[in-house]
Design a protein that fits this description.
2 copies of one chain form a homodimer.
Chain A (H helix, E strand, L loop, with lengths): L1 H13 L7 H10 L8 H8 L13 E5 L3 H9 L6 E6 L3 E3 L4 H4 L10 E3 H4 L2 H4 L4 E11 L4 E6 L11 E5 L2 E4 L4 E2 L7 H4 L6 H17 L7 H7 L1 E5 L3 H21 L8 E6 L9 H13 L2 E5 L2 E4 L3 E4 L4 E3 L2 E4 L3 E2 L2 H5 L10 E3 L11 E3 L4 E3 L12 H20 L24 E4 L5 E4 L10 E4 H14 L3 H17 L7
Helix pairs in contact in A: 4-14
Chain lengths: ~500, ~500
């Protein structure tokens, strides 16, 4: 006990805020009494988040479902002097999706594309009435102005999921969409999507695993080719950018670091129609050329069935694979479909020009989960980051002005003028097609005239543009550093 | 087919090295024939790693089991002109263990402490006769001069583990040790160790999960305290450094980013005897003082039982916890114990002064899995990175000189003089105890005189020393950048 005695004595001398006598220790341990006493008021608050209907002496509460582009841009723009913000999402960060493909092969690190919500809107972790809950929304009750939630327990058996209710003055549904499989059997079981950071992590782990397994003695050449065959289904920007990154990774890093197996690895991009259909014809030709040059096999085909080691096309062709990435666009999630709210064509939550959900009060929907109602005469907007972000920005301003006009509370909005409706103006599209090559299409629509270019300049524009779009300075800094180190040292291949 | 036709035509024009006609595509897909033809010789080699006994026209083969400090330092030092190197390990990277504790709370990123083996010894991924296999060694046959291996499949159901055999001219066993639980029930099930990157990842995910769950409405204060009670068992350098990092994380980041729950989170360090027992008394007192000041509760006690949400001490005290980290030292792994080789006191593989395993030929053992035989009259060395590294360096030089003297082949070593035996000289110990505070003890042993200091200077020495010890420039760069960003922007709290 020499050491312990000395420690006690020391602690006494220092008269630290902590208990110092051994017994007291153990008591404090067993009773778990708080030692550093917070100000009572604060303590009470922090002990029980009050999520009942807001009292006149409280700020009105905006509940945000989701943490994607739309939700985060909204929360960033909301005036936290006028509102308390409560965010509910199974993910405590926003993913900078345009750069996600680069993380799969280690061009960028995972954290460089993940932005903690608490940094986008610090109020949720500091303001007394604002919160972030790591939970899924399980139900919306428009009449009661409340949502039902259930905590994420991440499969930890010792944790019981908690159910709780949050009442809102304004509800913003920004739940995004989910990858569509078109009901093709085996996709969910065998393919990896590319929408979240953990998807990118899974792809990276599997790719490196296959590279190493394929080098094992006694493995047949056929099996080796299968393990090292990376198949990408879907020729949209995500699929194309991932294929480009992959072929770049193969040409640069695999040839250098996996010399034994470099001749067995191949990338195949399968698309039912045209790749990058939203882009200008010239750019599409350029992309096709670049991808082919860098060794990506472009195959036009329709997937019929997905087995654990091969996919089967409509024409019966069997394509063995070691890694299958699925990026064939998105659709509304089962939860969004299940909501008893008006729907837009395609099953998204239907909104009017002000992004309100009609027939219910104080509910708004933005991002991939929402679409204009047919009655608006406007087309459902594409599921793009820039649409979601623009909607988030617009709605933040709308809600702020509503609050100024005294319409922040539940059921108090109807007599307030909402100002201009939301109008979307497409700023153009960009996509990389591998090393130092990209497409930039600045036309507002496929038909419109406008600048469209391809090659190194576009690649430079692509990088600069995204670097400036990255949310925080920290990540901007990290992305730049990642690009620099990848350029200097090559990609990281440690499988962690 | 417009797009497809155009693509074919384009590809023809460009006359790329890839097949261009759609049918050919599908054939090449189904038959999986290689397209970019490698030089036949190379191809043959890469198709079937030859791991049979080496022929006179081949280099002798050194098989290395493990990828820790000892194994990696050895591979780095081996003369690849004299030897082919084959490394077998379930991990394709080396972990820079002294900085692992910093990654749990985001002071450093995981990749900054992981060094791909292919970067430490490029030959294993490029030289024709050298390989890295992601596999576990399942058996050693000294008479046959061969090892049995089985590939790691990472729980992927579609993959059958491959068994294969490697014959060696020289075998180096550097399998390290595993965390010891002293047979205490429930440790393996409920505690997290701190030896691998995935451990640090698990700790970080769990810590952030608990921080968020504890903020959920309706959760009892007792449960909140439990979730946010971080218990560290073991007062060695790892336990102390982790406790320090954790309290630093709490004081800096939790208070800022999790203001709602900041008053409920506590760290308790449980140690049966003295913390940092290898250090000078003065330093130990200093560490005790610092830890207490920064809010770490030091408890002297012995753990009797570990349940899923609480641990029970010998005196019956129950300590509820949300996160339990176990770092009470290491012992030989079951596989090492199972090997039919001479053993040192403590059950490690017994070696003589030249790190040879007596009674068998061409087998060496280094690092935490090995220890001097009693017959050598030398004490078993502590399981430290610096011991392992020094042994790896020594053995590399020994094997290189053996090769020069023509003793590289199996059974050809005995008549060759091995030169000076291995002598370990302790360079001293370092440990951080939280923000800007560290201990540096440069005495060669507890009894010896020598410099020992504590405080900011030591902290500076600690950082500089480790920064220079980091293996690659890439990671040195990243560690520096991480420290910088943590200093400027705070730690990253996105839970990915």
């Amino acid at each position: 006990m020499a050491w312990f005695g000395r420690f006690v004595q020391l602690a006494n001398v220092k008269n630290s805020a902590r208990p110092t006598n051994p017994n007291h220790f153990l008591t404090s341990l067993s009773h778990f009494s708080s030692t550093a006493g917070p100000a009572p008021a604060a303590a009470v608050r922090s002990r029980q988040p009050n999520l009942a209907p807001t009292r006149p002496d409280e700020k009105p509460r905006v509940v945000v479902l989701g943490s994607g582009w739309a939700a985060c841009r909204l929360m960033k723009g909301l005036d936290t002097k006028a509102y308390d913000v409560v965010c509910v999402s199974p993910r405590n960060h926003m993913v900078f999706t345009p750069l996600l493909a680069s993380t799969c092969v280690g061009t960028l690190e995972f954290r460089s594309v993940a932005e903690p919500i608490a940094r986008i809107q610090p109020a949720i972790s500091t303001a007394p009435g604002s919160y972030f809950f790591l939970a899924n929304c399980t139900g919306v009750d428009p009449d009661d102005h409340s949502v039902q939630c259930e905590t994420v327990t991440d499969g930890i058996s010792s944790l019981e999921p908690w159910k709780f209710k949050i009442t809102y003055d304004k509800l913003v549904v920004a739940l995004g969409a989910e990858a569509s499989t078109f009901g093709i059997h085996g996709v969910n079981e065998n393919a990896i999507f590319l929408r979240e950071v953990h998807h990118a992590q899974e792809i990276r782990r599997k790719l490196l695993l296959n590279l190493m397994l394929s080098d094992v003695p006694g493995i047949s050449e056929e099996e080796k080719r299968r393990l090292l065959h990376c198949v990408v289904v879907g020729g949209g920007p995500t699929g194309v950018e991932f294929s480009g990154e992959l072929s770049d990774f193969i040409m640069k890093d695999v040839h250098q670091r996996y010399a034994h197996v470099k001749d067995f690895i191949h990338v195949t991009l399968i698309e039912a129609n045209e790749i990058l259909s939203s882009f200008d014809d010239r750019l599409r030709r350029y992309a096709t050329k670049q991808l082919t040059k860098s060794g990506v096999r472009l195959v036009q085909g329709v997937v019929k069935d997905v087995k654990s080691q091969k996919i089967i096309l409509n024409d019966g062709t069997e394509v063995p694979y070691g890694l299958l990435v699925w990026s064939t666009g998105v659709g509304p999630s089962p939860f969004v479909r299940s909501l008893q709210l008006p729907k837009s064509p395609g099953g998204r939550i239907g909104v009017d020009e002000w992004l309100r959900v009609p027939s219910v009060r104080d509910i708004f929907a933005i991002g991939d989960c929402s679409g204009f109602l047919e009655s608006t005469g406007k087309p459902v907007l594409p599921a793009l980051a820039q649409v979601a972000e623009r909607q988030g920005k617009y709605l933040a301003e709308l809600l702020n002005s509503v609050a100024k006009a005294g319409g922040g509370r539940a059921n108090s909005i109807k007599e307030i003028a909402l100002g201009d409706p939301f109008v979307y103006r497409h700023l153009g599209s960009m996509a990389t097609v591998g090393r130092y090559k990209a497409l930039v299409d600045l036309r507002q629509s496929k038909e419109a005239k406008g600048l469209s270019l391809a090659g190194f300049t576009s690649w430079f524009i692509w990088r600069s543009a995204y670097l400036t779009r990255v949310v925080s300075w920290r990540n901007r800094f990290y992305v730049a550093i990642n690009w620099f180190t990848t350029f200097v040292f090559g990609r990281d291949i440690s499988r962690i």
